[in-house]
Amino acid sequence: MPTKNPRLNVVLDVELYDMVEKLSKQEDKSMSVVAKELIEDALEKHEDLVLSEMAMKREAKSKKTIAHEKAWK
Question: How far is CA 31 from CA 16, 18, 44, in A?
């Protein structure tokens, strides 16, 4: 039966494979689910870093700043 979700084949070295396998057994999940969750976490962290960098660049260009304490009064 065809699946509605796209598939991705990934080749892991033995150490990574063993880590994913160990996590899947500890969490009683399939290796596919564990790998998917790890990829999601990594992408969220990457996105946070990119957005933080963008904000820092904008902040550096801005001449007008307000102290945190003053802004929240």
Answer: 11, 10, 20
